[in-house]
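Quick one, tokens below. Sequence please?
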């Protein structure tokens, strides 16, 4: 620059508002100097796609990294991680789950979520659970939010009453694929049978139950509160399990069919 415009170094530094010491300082490769920071940030964001800067920085502190927040933030911005990331987590490839009618109680439970709206416009969710052997419904949980921790508590309550299932069939919802739920199932020695994404026919028993529940309860009433939904659902569940004839069970209600299976003691 000084040779091209035929000015002294002093005048060039004054025009650029740059100190002469900085002019004579040798160039440094920031990429090489910050390589460790870049690798550490890449390791974090590859697993936690939605974390912001401060969560990444706190994680680096937990990992024992000594860099201050100014340096980490500079590298974070150079990597353009401060810009909104629209990436979505790709669902893992699942093997096809054949739907085979079992004749053993508690061999396979099926889980699925539904949602509906109160008269006020507030939405709520339901967690439906059925036993594939007798199509009976051990219970339905209702709330405005059902995270993984609540799923675990609800299934534990059902296990205390009805016994532990050998396997659970479910879709790839975030609550059911979460670390907490999968590890809980592993600790309880319960096999998880995830259906393939976009293949609800692989969980057809509970899909059919969901249709019945929606037609006879959710679409049949206007609800003012969650407690009202629970009250009507509990009353309907008693009739569904004890009275309502089921076409696939020879027009027997699930409770009667369950008694027949237990009396026969048919092996898996």
């Amino acid at each position: 620059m000084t040779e091209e415009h035929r000015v002294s170094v002093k005048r060039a530094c004054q025009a650029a508002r740059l100190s002469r010491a900085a002019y004579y300082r040798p160039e440094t490769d920031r990429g090489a100097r910050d390589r460790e920071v870049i690798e550490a940030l890449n390791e974090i964001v590859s697993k936690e796609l939605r974390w912001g800067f401060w969560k990444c920085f706190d994680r680096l502190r937990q990992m024992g990294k000594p860099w201050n927040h100014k340096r980490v933030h500079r590298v974070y911005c150079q990597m353009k991680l401060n810009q909104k990331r629209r990436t979505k987590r790709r669902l893992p490839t699942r093997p096809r789950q054949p739907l085979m009618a079992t004749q053993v109680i508690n061999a396979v439970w099926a889980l699925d979520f539904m949602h509906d709206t109160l008269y006020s416009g507030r939405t709520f969710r339901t967690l439906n659970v059925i036993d594939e052997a007798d199509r009976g419904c051990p219970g339905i949980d209702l709330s405005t939010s059902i995270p993984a921790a609540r799923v675990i508590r609800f299934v534990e309550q059902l296990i205390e009453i009805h016994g532990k299932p050998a396997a659970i069939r479910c879709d790839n919802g975030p609550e059911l694929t979460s670390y907490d739920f999968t590890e809980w199932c592993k600790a309880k020695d319960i096999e998880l049978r995830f259906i393939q994404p976009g293949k609800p026919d692989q969980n057809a028993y509970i899909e059919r139950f969901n249709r019945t529940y929606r037609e006879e309860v959710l679409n049949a009433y206007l609800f003012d509160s969650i407690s009202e939904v629970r009250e009507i659902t509990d009353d309907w569940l008693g009739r569904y399990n004890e009275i309502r004839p089921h076409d696939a069970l020879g027009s027997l209600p699930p409770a009667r069919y369950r008694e027949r299976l237990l009396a026969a003691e048919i092996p898996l």
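The chain has three domains: 1-30, 34-89, 108-264. The radius of gyration is 30 Å.
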